[in-house]
Amino acid sequence: MSLNIKNERTHALVRRLAHLTGQSQTAAVEDAVARRLAEVESLAPTGHVDTRWVDVQHLLVEYRADLTPQDRARIADADADLYDERGLPR
């Protein structure tokens, strides 16, 4: 069997995941897909998935992947200004 992915960003993400986890690229993809499938299935225990929710989650994953450490720090600072330690608005 063969899976041919022609997307450089996806290749880079797989290489990075494999490097960080010490897995082969194939194992990293298998693990990531299995985890994502479990996540999606847990969102829809009835077997019906709200595709809009899945789309939103996918967009959030892409957004977070592009954040630099500086971006993450700025977001954390903004959250600290807006919300207290319990997550309630100040």
From TrEMBL:
Pfam families: PSK_trans_fac. Keywords: Toxin-antitoxin system. This is Antitoxin VapB.
